[in-house]
Amino acid sequence: MRFVIDNKEFIDALSAVSLKGKWPSGGTTKTETISDFAYIVANDSDNSITLYNANEICACSVKINVDLDMVHIGGESVLDIPKLKKYLKPMKGSVRVTIGEIIKLDTETKSATISSVVSHPSFSMISLVRNIDLEGKGVDNMPTFGKANVPFEAAVMLTSESLQDACKTCDVSNTSRYILHTTSNEDFRISSPEINSEKVVVYPETLGVFGEEAIVELTGEFAHFLKGITTIYLKDDFPVLVTSPNRILVKAPRFEPR
């Protein structure tokens, strides 16, 4: 695999798929990532690079498209995110990346060689994201999810800034738990769970609420991954699909232990 990419754009995409943020830990939260590895797919037919990452409850992808002849040799591989970012940071501008048994990074004046990774620990979750078909799908024709192709039943469109502000407000509860709820009268709210009579509820400004009533609880970072106009697809107690331009995220719902 060989491609040329802007150094900052590559670092930003690697950071995005790390999903670094607050995640539940006991009765409080701690800062974590979903994994330190990214699965990369370079497609020379449309000059795109897609980075994937996942753990047992979450998977995401970032696609990078350019108009130039970026991808010279296509392929797939696994990257060590912290290590690769460390070697990329001193480089500036365009970087030629060659991935085989080792990874080579080259600019006009600098070069580095680092080891590659054999496999991604959550490849099955990455496969779920790769198999999502969004062609022709949207709020009027809901996408499906899973091997049974179950359709989502509700959708919310809003800006990523509105979503991030709502989640940031809920974060004062320090639970990193978010209840997403669409209602029959086309309202949408995000709230923290009520604990010891304490609760936060936010009605973010939306661009539209569609479909049926649905409610799902999510845990951990997700809002800051999105950029631009964002669509959240929901179904009661079902995985949540969130999309923004060139970005896809899937999260499993949280269930209350019985």
Radius of gyration: 19 Å
**Overall pLDDT confidence:** 94
Query: Can you tell me the number of structural domains?
Result: 2
- The span between the termini is 49 Å
Shape: globular
Helix content: 10-25%
Number of helices: 4
Secondary-structure content class: alpha+beta
What is the β-strand count?
Answer: 22
Provide the CATH top-level class of the largest domain.
Alpha Beta
Oligomer: single chain
- Which stretches are low in confidence, meaning pLDDT under 50 for 5 or more residues running? none
Describe the structure.
By secondary structure, the protein is of the alpha+beta class. The chain has two domains: about 1-115, DNA Polymerase III, Chain A, domain 2; about 135-250, Proliferating Cell Nuclear Antigen (Box), CATH 3.70.10.10. Helices cover about 15% and strands about 45% of the residues. The protein contains four helices and 22 strands. It has helices spanning about 5-20, 80-90, 125-130, 160-170, and strands spanning about 1-5, 20-25, 30, 35-45, 50-55, 60-65, 70-75, 75-80, 95-100, 100-105, 110-115, 145, 150, 155-160, 175-180, 190, 200, 210, 215-220, 230-235, 240-245, 245-250. Strands 8-4-5-6-22-21-20-14-18 form a nine-stranded antiparallel β-sheet, sandwiched between helices. Strands 7-1-9-10-11 form a five-stranded antiparallel β-sheet. The longest helix is centred in the N-terminal third of the chain and has 12 residues, at about 5-20. It is globular. The N and C termini lie far apart (about 50 Å).
